[in-house]
Hints:
Number of strands of chain A: 13
Oligomer: homotetramer
Number of domains of chain A: 2
Distance between the termini of chain A: 38 Å
Radius of gyration of chain A: 20 Å
Strand order of the largest sheet of chain A: 8-9-7-10-13-12-11
Shape of chain A: globular
Amino acid sequence: MVQVKKIGIVGATGYTGVELLRLLVKHPDIEISYVTSRSNVGVRVDEMFPNLRGYIDIAFSDPSTDALAECDLVFFATPNGIAMNHVPELLQANTKVIDLAADFRIKDVSVWSKWYGMIHACPELLGEAVYGLPEINRDLLKTANLVANPGCYPTSVILGLLPLLESKLVDLDNIIADTKSGVSGAGKQANIGTLFSEMGESFKAYGVGGHRHQPEISQILSQLSESSVDLTFVPHLLPIIRGIHATIYSRTDVDASTLQALYEKQYINEPFVDVLPQGSHPETRNVKSSNMCQIAIHKPAESSRLVVLSVIDNLVKGAAGQAVQNMNIMFGLHETTALDRPALLP
Amino acid sequence: MVQVKKIGIVGATGYTGVELLRLLVKHPDIEISYVTSRSNVGVRVDEMFPNLRGYIDIAFSDPSTDALAECDLVFFATPNGIAMNHVPELLQANTKVIDLAADFRIKDVSVWSKWYGMIHACPELLGEAVYGLPEINRDLLKTANLVANPGCYPTSVILGLLPLLESKLVDLDNIIADTKSGVSGAGKQANIGTLFSEMGESFKAYGVGGHRHQPEISQILSQLSESSVDLTFVPHLLPIIRGIHATIYSRTDVDASTLQALYEKQYINEPFVDVLPQGSHPETRNVKSSNMCQIAIHKPAESSRLVVLSVIDNLVKGAAGQAVQNMNIMFGLHETTALDRPALLP
Amino acid sequence: MVQVKKIGIVGATGYTGVELLRLLVKHPDIEISYVTSRSNVGVRVDEMFPNLRGYIDIAFSDPSTDALAECDLVFFATPNGIAMNHVPELLQANTKVIDLAADFRIKDVSVWSKWYGMIHACPELLGEAVYGLPEINRDLLKTANLVANPGCYPTSVILGLLPLLESKLVDLDNIIADTKSGVSGAGKQANIGTLFSEMGESFKAYGVGGHRHQPEISQILSQLSESSVDLTFVPHLLPIIRGIHATIYSRTDVDASTLQALYEKQYINEPFVDVLPQGSHPETRNVKSSNMCQIAIHKPAESSRLVVLSVIDNLVKGAAGQAVQNMNIMFGLHETTALDRPALLP
Amino acid sequence: MVQVKKIGIVGATGYTGVELLRLLVKHPDIEISYVTSRSNVGVRVDEMFPNLRGYIDIAFSDPSTDALAECDLVFFATPNGIAMNHVPELLQANTKVIDLAADFRIKDVSVWSKWYGMIHACPELLGEAVYGLPEINRDLLKTANLVANPGCYPTSVILGLLPLLESKLVDLDNIIADTKSGVSGAGKQANIGTLFSEMGESFKAYGVGGHRHQPEISQILSQLSESSVDLTFVPHLLPIIRGIHATIYSRTDVDASTLQALYEKQYINEPFVDVLPQGSHPETRNVKSSNMCQIAIHKPAESSRLVVLSVIDNLVKGAAGQAVQNMNIMFGLHETTALDRPALLP
């Protein structure tokens, strides 16, 4: 029998935090032993999140490295720049870490500093950190102690392009990712810009001049294709709570049915990537609350244009669900434990 | 070990149908053997509902009483007036039935005919049918063969008043239920009135002159209080997909903390009724996707006025989840099987 | 010809502020000469509100009493407790004032202080201030220098009850106002509680234990009925941006058609109150962007129960539109100027 | 003084119909004399559209060519394939026609028949019909008798590309229009696919394999650039009622400030095209209810990639507003009459 693992969550009052809790309270092989929030010490977790009443019986603690070090694994569901200050000590204490923020996603520390505006606290660990996308790094994850959980947009875009990159069948100088995200991706900060009355009944692009997820995506695309990539990345904000839809454009001479077969072969054994029949239009609600990524491939007639549609729930496969998937792999558990539920539709 | 039960679902293309499927595909003690839809015969279930890809591998069939009779239990997720034509034959074949529509909810057949505009096909079974609210009829459900699954509004209102009715502590001549429902309660019919562009960014009351759920609620309130009840019932349509919020008004001389204790005692062992701390304001999202009913009691200052707030997910505790709860009871299974998951928040 | 009036708006960066601007930029008889925002001095108004590009060519100023005193009329679209510090000086300078906040709504200064938690800066002006509901105070408004613009909920509830109060045809000991408001009513403050991801796909009551609009409504109901009133007021938050729906319950022995005639007679000459045909269900979208209040009266069968439905746009008839209506009356302009447009539907 | 023109609207029960009514009821130079709906003959217009109570006092009529021929101008707000059966007779009777559907948008009748699946009833009029985009055809519109009002997507995309096409500064072999529309664009038909519970909290692409607006856009782009164009057009459905956002990608060697100047020069005198400052992100709500198109140009760093953002209200500049603008031009009225109002924000 598997021994129950002790889990800590730092910064559990945000949306990825509560989503981790929602998934983990029913995980049979772990125990949530430590949940921190600097500004809510002593508040019961289920007082802040009434959906968890009856499922969790602890209060938020102040984050202490000593207490965290008693956990087998700690999730950092914190803003960027927090995890890196705790990770060295935790790794020394043999506590595994999954950072849901961006501290360990970019291998080139100068690129990281440019985009995140900080000096990195432990650049020596960037090499060791495994980029936690099981579809490309499953073997590395099995022995990883430090995992950089991918960004939500990168997850949707990379999974949408992966089969093409490895096979070198696509024009790498001409990739556009037009992505749309639900508002929960902006986090649970008091912010006028994401008020209901600002986001409702409207739609806009943002960060067209440059967005932090672009170097993250480019790094992985280049690594997979062993080549430089010209990627245009334009994110938009959708008036929905959960969901990302990536519409990815490139060119290829390969015909549609060959592409379809390529994608189906790539993902045939993946529990959380689902290639839809040719000509499908995945809806974000197909995967709401679930860890699934649904993908459809299109080649509009009489053209070399390729259009890939990819949908995820930004809080699940784009954050907490993928983190739990990574944890399962790191602990040698069944990869789908606590994640194997159909999406909520409608 | 429990023997796996064969389950049929008639009319599974609507919202209560797909919700039954979502809950049942992970139920360890049953097998979905037969799913019908007259207008979609041969269509794969997961083609219509892509959230179920990987979870169900059958197609819709034409409803046939013979095939249904091979099931241990059949859910009718059909419009009103369908189940009553199949039930007598199914009961004779020892197939249990849970009707999610209204055919067996009202004991007085003339009242039923008045509100539903039909002649009842088997009025002789109305006495035998058990009203499937476990919180009042758990013992009867254990041996029931025919269950009338309650309406969504009635579930929220009755659970909100139950402790008061049995204790006769409330003014029965002055009950108002101001209820608000998500649009999925109107079903998945092609209908201009429930288009996105009609329902979005708006709110309205409907049926103020009379609504079918009023006699259903009144019947149960009268039965529980052993008295006549003057109930004003006003439903409204919310621009959300799932959720019911009932705001219930009456008068009582009992003070707030006595009421709180009364509610807590009533529901202490109920797995799916959660009495919030005094002064709470339950949000419908607290129970989205879950079978929970959350209740809060208020007594605004210096007044005999009582205000009870009650929230459910209309498709779960208000329909499919309650039906699964009833099925579990009828089969002697653990009552919470397949239902014991936290709500999706946010 | 009417001389163009100079208008100032203090605190114009909130939702009532931008709504005042939207209405006033096309008002032929006024000129917006001064728009203030302490935290946005120098920012162009149309940079903050791109819907106004081409309609206004000024920037936000620091509020200065001297500059305000050069206006013919100043709107305070500020938080509670701001206007009262400027009003005495402005009145002395012969500048008229309309306060869209609550500083002058409550006549009893001790009640005001209890609910608003402040010492009033000029209680001596409370008697002079006119409650700016034209349907009850039109004559007083013609000569008013200081107007307390009503709250949004009070406007919807008072207009819904007005014909009954004056005619003493309703049970004043048993009035319930179950009200529902769009999120813009909570203002444009950075606040976790009104984020899109908190308010979307959900619904809740709030302030059941007591809300500041209750004493405001009670004061007017008592004044109109010349009697004390037992009012239960329960507000709820709707996942829409604009709109209030009040569902008002009482008892009366008068029949439905008499009530209908009473309402129609009361409002026959009112430009912004529209009594719908008997049995109607007004939707909030019927009045979105417009200054109209739509009302419908119901008497459910075999009961003395009366149900009044009343809808307004909380930012228009519930705030900025009513303020413009009041301004028009105070200046002797045509009352509907700049307000006479159909609502936006859908 | 201008003589009041008699206006007819055929098919006024849909969303473009009610939007025409909303705009026209306050137009000082016209009179709505005839509003038709085959299925609602005798129903008062303001009974179907309660936002128009007090603004229009007629009922829907059966469409009769004789009655229509008495109008000075008739709008067809009908499904595709209706207008073409009435137009020849109306033109003969000297009645001008603006078709808001697609009957006269495509010059090549075989292309039209392929995409619309019908034989054209009057192909001889295709040459005479003027494509009603004032920004390219203002002079032709002044004398036009038959106007093809552009599609909503084409309006947003063509205005976004117009300055580049005429100046031949853009790579015509590599244009992508990733477009997103509010649900009202799908019309007011009883349709499961556009129910609130289907569209809410979700997002999807559709018609990736081919959409009717693609040949319409391509025709105009080719005409303006005097060259063939390789356009990839992917529409998506947004969970909002009104609004289109086009994100348009191409390549150009021209730098950002030159492009900005080019766009500003092109549109400097256009009343309904507004070029935002460089680096802006227009939101669809900036133009909700208004006839404005807002455009922003981006050149992400170190790349020849060009990104143009273009937003309109699909029911106004994308349909009814543009039709009124065209009517104003055809009648020699001031072009902005009845259209000169700021958008509704929030």
